[in-house]
Amino acid sequence: MVCRHNDELEALVREAKKMTGRGKVADYIPALAEADENDLSVAIYYTENTCLSAGDIEKTFTLQSISKVLSLALVLMDYGKDRVFSYVGQEPTGDPFNSIIKLETVNPSKPLNPMINAGALVVTSLIKGKSAKDRLDYLLAFIRRLANNEKITYCQNVAESEYKTSMINRAMCYYMKQYEILHGDVESVMDLYTKQCAIEMNSLDLAKIGCVFALNGKHPETGEQVIPKDVARICKTFMVTCGMYNASGEFAIKIGVPAKSGVSGGIMGISPYDFGIGIFGPALDEKGNSIAGVKLLELMSETYRLSIF
Ligand code: DON
């Protein structure tokens, strides 16, 4: 399917792009520092399978934290919400995404929600499979079904770069293992988690996945109910309350769409029953969200009246 370039959207991208200079590309995962901080692209995928775009939507990027919504959907489908929420909570933290502090101060020491790193690590540890390869293949197959794109895979360079340097995430895994929140071998959880975060796609793929959520789990192209309605609803709710980390409250007031960001500069947004949005803009603000991506969503929300509130 061809995505049509749209002039109105291009004008919004041009305006939002002015923000890129105020942001900074993530470099705590060394391989992410190679991104071009001036990039900004957007795709809008409509429920009737049409698509509009602006910027270079062929560019691929890794999902990073956006993958947390997808791994959560998968484990909710396999275990049900009662079991999943016995390992991970449902409340926003107000802390940065990689903060360790509440693991110690909140009792029992389970992570407050699945969108922060600690919670996402527990979710990843629950992904089913007999071997490491099985678990990765299972997650990839699910994500390929969501994007209806068999070619989707992970970027080995980014995965290795994070695996080698991700000591705070390791520390959180060990902490949670001590309290029997996380089970199994920490290195295998880290291996799967870093590959999950390194799953790579372009903004059109991401917009299409957003569209699946906009349709409450039904795929716009295949018609398949890829995610049960109730699971899609839970994921969207987390996107509103925790999707933009400790900027989620302000984002909900200013923009008002369920959204999830990643430190690669990706943002997946959802306009319920209407379309999914895929944005890529690697320059980040101080909270780890795409600075121009957030601006672009703000302009889109004003122009197209997107707030769900
Ligand atoms: O675990 C990490 O730190 C990264 N793989 C993902 C963090 C992330 O994307 C936070 N997003 N804004």
TrEMBL record:
SUPFAM superfamilies xrefs: beta-lactamase/transpeptidase-like
Sequence positions that bind substrate: S65, N117, E162, N169, Y193, Y245, V263
Superkingdom classification of source: Bacteria
Enzyme Commission number(s): 3.5.1.2
Keyword Transport: no
Coiled coil residues, start to end: none
Keyword Membrane: no
Reactions the enzyme catalyzes: L-glutamine + H2O = L-glutamate + NH4(+)
Keyword annotations: Acetylation, Hydrolase
First-tier enzyme category under EC: hydrolase
GO molecular function: glutaminase activity
Family: Belongs to the glutaminase family.
Subunit and interaction comment: Homotetramer.
Protein name according to UniProt: Glutaminase
Origin organism lineage: Bacteria, Bacillati, Bacillota, Bacilli, Bacillales
The gene coding this protein: glsA
